[in-house]
């Protein structure tokens, strides 16, 4: 059995959301606290970093290029260079207290993202960690984590009970 080998020397602050692009033969991931999305091209060994103005909780690749990205302030559509193009949903929690932490797309192309509140409030008091899952569905086709096209028919983002 082959021994696993590291792709390259990388140390992140809080890397999450690994996403493979079959078409590009590239691995993407977010570094939440560094406000970045990384791309590593397996064939060339090139490592690119896209910088964002806020923490990147999670993202998904879009078929026509770019990303759907859950930033602290809300969910955004970006171009392939990470330029914010359209805000599609505000963070349903108070963005001064809560940021998006994790999410992705399901087989039907729905993008899920969950905000999480920190363990301490502004005054430093201990609080219960709260995570709630929200769903957005866009009026376009994009590529899910599995790399297959998903056809989306509507947009929703908000309280899962309402």
Outline of the structure:
This protein has 162 residues and is mainly β.
Question: Topology, pairings included?
Answer:
Elements: E1 15-21, E2 26-31, E3 36-41, E4 47-51, E5 56-61, E6 67-71, E7 74-78, E8 84-90, E9 99-105, E10 111-116, E11 134-136, E12 141-143, E13 149-151
Antiparallel strand pairs: 1-2, 2-3, 3-4, 5-6, 6-7, 7-8, 9-10, 10-11, 12-13
Word description of this protein:
By secondary structure, the protein is an all-beta fold. The C terminus is likely disordered. The strands form four sheets. Strands 1-2-3-4 form a four-stranded antiparallel beta sheet, with no helix packed on it. It has a four-stranded antiparallel beta sheet with strand order 5-6-7-8, with no helix packed on it. It has a three-stranded antiparallel beta sheet with strand order 9-10-11, with no helix packed on it. 0% of the residues lie in helices and 43% in strands.
């Amino acid at each position: 059995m082959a021994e696993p080998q590291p792709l390259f020397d990388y140390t992140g602050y809080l890397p999450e959301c690994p996403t493979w692009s079959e078409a590009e033969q590239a691995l993407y991931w977010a570094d939440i606290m560094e406000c970045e999305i990384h791309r590593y091209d397996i064939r060339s060994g090139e490592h690119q970093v896209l910088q964002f103005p806020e923490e990147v909780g999670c993202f998904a690749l879009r078929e026509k290029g770019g990303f759907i990205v859950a930033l602290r302030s809300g969910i955004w559509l970006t171009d392939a260079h990470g330029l914010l193009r359209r805000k599609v949903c505000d963070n349903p929690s108070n963005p001064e207290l809560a940021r998006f932490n994790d999410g992705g797309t399901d087989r039907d192309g729905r993008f899920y993202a969950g905000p999480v509140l920190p363990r301490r409030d502004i005054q430093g008091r201990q609080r219960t960690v709260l995570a709630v899952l929200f769903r957005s569905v866009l009026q376009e086709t994009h590529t899910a984590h599995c790399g297959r096209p998903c056809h989306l028919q509507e947009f929703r983002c908000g309280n899962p009970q309402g």
